[in-house]
Write a structure and sequence with these properties.
Length: 456
């Protein structure tokens, strides 16, 4: 009996010794959990050991990584923790390193959320198609351990502060100190809506994203940010989203929301026995649309008897049609150098620009006489729908068209919505023709669908 007890004791001691000798990081292979919720696509890393102090991995996305934003969680917004991401093609590599504390309680870490940058575009959990190139770092000496295959095309080199194998960041050397982080906060007293900030703290040069969320019955008037005694330059990302580069100072973000104007009904044309345009055949596919826009006073003919259905439509003409639909409200000048006061289209363009329905080409240019493309028309109608408070949640499938991948990045969200809403459909041959010019007949059909499907 005594001999049996001795053997069991010896075996137990051996097992304990073996367990203690196994490196902590080898306890389990890391895994990225991807789930979709109302805030976007949440990323959680599981399988971390208790002494993990750094991690790196590469995600392969279902679209260009430059079209996706990764907002790190508040758990990583702490002193001594550094985060970075880099993109190349459809690959995004994530780096996280902590100077002191271990990462993730209970073996898991809330990494943050992915969101689509294009206005109206959404992500699902399928946005992350694969994960590879795992690298974990042990606390203390930053011993490196890798898991799984390396990415087939490594995006970029790690940031300068990423510790190499066997290095000790805490021992000094050439490693730069953690950058100073400044506060980012919303101004007090905002009414008519609220704003969401991608970070509550950021270092100088970091990009911060602001999302303005108007209450029902309100629209976004303007969004501003100031820090260090000066106003910051904001980049309009579309969909009431803006970004700015963080200065060496705390930043306050302000948003002004305006009450939606009361709808003013368009005065229809008096009924007539028949359409006066001799170039619109009774059996033409656009006949009903031309009759609709003419009766509603949205589009007139190019002459008393000619509608010119295959004629071109300019950017100024489309904006003027929406201005008529709105009841021709007045607005101050938008500052476009190619929209002089006194031109027939100036009031409409000034109104549209003041309500964020159009923003021009940049450099103070609007291009009023340029022929409008189908994707430009989708973007203008998308912003007008937002201005009116109409639903912009419809999602089409651009992959059904042979040229669906040719939609410009800035127009992808609006085009997905316009297709999902039935406003812009394909042409013969299964093409979407996003950069093709919208004819007057096409414009009439799109406007009729907009009024009948959305403006209820």
């Amino acid at each position: 009996m005594k001999t049996t007890k001795k053997v069991l004791s010896l075996l137990l001691a051996v097992v304990l010794t073996l367990m203690l000798s196994v490196p902590a990081l080898a306890a389990g292979e890391p895994k990225l959990d991807v789930t979709a919720d109302a805030s976007g696509v949440r990323l959680t890393v599981s399988g971390l050991a208790s002494d993990c102090q750094g991690l790196q991995f590469t995600m392969r996305l279902d679209r260009a990584a430059s079209e996706v934003d990764l907002t790190f969680s508040a758990a990583l917004d702490e002193p001594g923790i550094r985060t970075a991401k880099s993109s190349s093609g459809t690959a995004m590599t994530v780096y996280i390193a902590s100077k002191s504390a271990a990462l993730g309680e209970g073996g898991s870490l809330d990494l943050g959320a992915l969101s689509a940058l294009a206005a109206g575009s959404t992500l699902t959990s399928a946005a992350v198609s694969s994960v590879s190139g795992w690298k974990l770092l042990r606390s203390g000496d930053f011993t490196e351990e890798t898991f799984g295959p390396s990415p087939s095309t490594p995006p970029v080199n790690p940031p300068d502060w990423w510790p190499g194998p066997g290095s000790d960041e805490s021992s000094g050397g050439s490693t730069a100190p953690a950058p100073t982080r400044y506060r980012v906060e919303a101004a007090s007293g905002i009414t008519g809506g609220k704003i969401q900030l991608s970070a509550s703290q950021a270092a100088a040069g970091d990009q911060v994203t602001v999302t303005a969320l108007p209450d029902t019955g309100y629209v976004v008037d303007r969004v501003t940010a100031s820090g260090g005694g000066r106003d910051l330059v904001l980049t309009d990302l579309g969909g009431n989203r803006y970004s700015f580069a963080m200065p060496n100072a705390n930043v306050t973000v302000q948003a002004l929301f305006a009450v939606l104007p009361e709808d003013k009904p368009v005065q229809p044309q008096p009924p007539a026995a028949e359409l006066p345009f001799v170039d619109v055949a009774p059996d033409a596919w656009y006949r009903e649309a031309v009759e609709y826009v003419y009766r509603m006073g949205l589009m007139n003919g190019m002459s008393a008897t000619a509608f010119v259905p295959n004629g071109t439509t300019t950017r100024a003409q489309i904006v003027t049609i929406l201005h008529r639909l709105e009841g021709t409200p007045a607005a101050s000048g938008a500052g476009f150098t190619d929209v002089p006061a006194g031109q027939w289209y100036a009031p409409a363009i000034n109104w549209a620009a003041s309500n964020a329905i159009v923003d021009g080409y940049g450099g103070g240019k609007f291009g009023p006489d340029d022929q409008i493309t189908r994707e430009q028309m989708a973007a203008i109608l998308y912003r007008y729908a937002q201005y009116k408070g109409y639903s912009t949640s419809a999602l089409g499938d651009l992959s059904l068209f042979s040229d669906g991948d040719q939609v410009s990045g800035w127009a992808r969200g609006p085009m997905v919505w316009a297709n999902g809403s039935g406003l812009i459909n394909g042409k013969s041959g299964g093409v979407l023709d996003p950069q093709g010019h919208a004819t007057r007949a096409e414009a009439a059909a799109i406007l009729m669908r907009f009024c009948e499907n959305l403006a209820q």
